[in-house]
Amino acid sequence: MTSDDELTLFPINASHVDSFHRALDMVAREKKYLTLLEAPPLEETRGFVLGMIEKKNPQIVALVGDEVVGWCDISRHFFPSHAHRGSLGMGVIPAYRGRGLGSRLLERTLTEARKAGFVRVELDVHADNARAIALYERFGFAREGVAKYAACIDGNYIDTIGMAIIYR
Fold first, then answer.
1. Which site in 18, 31, 91, 139 is 20 to 30 Å from 131, CA atoms measured?
2. Does pTM top 0.85 for this prediction?
3. Low-confidence stretches of the chain (pLDDT beneath 70)
4. Structurally, what CATH architecture does the domain formed by 4-121 represent?
């Protein structure tokens, strides 16, 4: 593990795809925080990242050297009547949790979202992820509802909480 001054936040670019894929896979395989159980195939991840860049959607990565250790992204809704909305996703690899990195990533990504004209940013979080819920609430996200049995991981049903922040 390195010191925080060696960690930088940076808009994702094509050179980060492989490392982002590894970080995504690491967090997904924990089966605690993401609905994904593993990262999609590398080429699918590459397509996602390049699409985010092309659409100018905010996607910020936390880097130690060239390695992605965390990310936060907001995907704009594809229907024109919903294009003011975006869906947020984020993750931090285990070795970098509990150090304020999630807050830094979220703050930077939300700043970029506002610059890009997003009016509403929404997310779903596992109902048992108290740390993430507290983080989102600190940034102004409000709970909008609970989806019962929204995911099933290893035979266990998980409720999710829908949250959103509105900039008006």
1. 18
2. yes
3. 1-5
4. 3-Layer(aba) Sandwich (3.40)
